Amino acid sequence: MVVRLKLLVALILFLVTSISCDKQIKTSVNNSSFLPTASGENNEMLLIMDSTKFQGKIGRLLVDTYGSYLPGLPQPEPRFDLRYIKPRKFNNILKHAKNIVVAFTLEGNSFDSQILRKNFNQESLDSIEEDSTLFYFTKRDQYAKGQIILYLFSKSDEDLYNKLAKNKKAILMYFEKELQKRISDKVFTKEEKNISQKILSDHDVKLRIPIGYDLAKNIKGDISNFFWLRQLDPEFEKNIFLYYEDYSDGNPSNFYDVFSSEKPEIYNIRNYISRKFIKDSENSKIFMDIQDIFPIESSRVNYNNNLAIESIGLWKLSDISAGGPFKSIIIYDKNKNRIYYLEGYVYAPGLKKRELMQEISSILMTFES
Question: Which residues have C-beta within 8 Å of that of residue 129, sequence separation ≥ 6?
C-alpha cells in the first residue's frame, strides 16, 4: 500500500512537471481557466511512444483498440483517427490535442524511451518495477481545456501488453465516454424546444431535439402513434422517428419477434413501421427496407432500468435509389406497459457517416418515456 501511494504521488508530480513542459504550462496546469482550449477534432487521437514499441505488439494493440472500424457503417471508418508522434516531436502545438495516449515501459534504451522515463524520478520508476497492479494514470486539462490524457506504463513490454489486452474495453471506454459528452455538448448548443414540447404533449415522451430539425409527421390516435423528425441539408439528411404501442393482454403484437426468441429479431417490426409510415411522398410504392449486405447487429441492454434491444444496420429504399446506416432502440417500459421503437438514420451519399451517426446516437440517448 505504501509503495502504491508513493507511486501515485510521484505520478502526480510527473504530470504537473510533464514531458518537456515549459514554464507557462507548468504554472497554469492547476488552473484550467488560463489554459488554451484543446484543438483538433473530437475523433482525433495522438499516440506518444517509442517507435520500436509502436511497431511492436503494444503499438499494434493500441491501434487495433482505438483505430478499429466502427460497426454499422457502409464504408470502413475507424473509431478514432490515429496519429503516431515520437516523444521528441511532441511539441507545444501537439500538446493541445483533445485525446492523447502516452505509453512506455522500463525496457529499451532508445532516445525516445529515455525522454518518457526521465520525467519519472527514481523512486517512482522503482515502484513501477515492484508494483505490477498499477499500469495507467489519467489526466484532464493538463495542457489545454477539454483535453484528456491516458498514461500507460509497466516494467516490461510483455507485462504492459498483457495488461492492455486484458483491459482493452476499459481503455477504449475511457475515451468513448468523453467523446459522447463532447458530441452532446456540441449537438445541443441550441435546441428546438417547441418541437420537444409538442412531442411531450402528444406522446408523453421526452426527447432533446437540436436546432434545424422539423416535425415532418406526427400521428396521435387510437390506431397508431408515430412521429418523424427530419433535418434536410443539400448534402445529407438526418432522421429520427418513434413508433409505439401498448403491451395488451400479454401480447406484444407487432413486437412479438423482438422478444419471443433468444436472439432479438427486429426485421419484421421495422418493415411494418417503414412500409406504413415512411414512404416516398411522390410514389407511395417506394418504401424503406433493410439491406442484407451486412446482418443487423442486435443486443439486449438496460435502458433507464427497462429492457431494451439496441440494433445497428443498413437501410435502403425499395427501388435501391438511396441507403445508409441506422441505429434503433426498442424499449419496453414496464411502468407504462408500452413498447417503443426509436430509430435514427442518415442519408449522405459520398460522405463519411461516422460523425453523423454519432450525432444521431446522442439524440437517441436523450429519450425518456
Answer: 106, 155
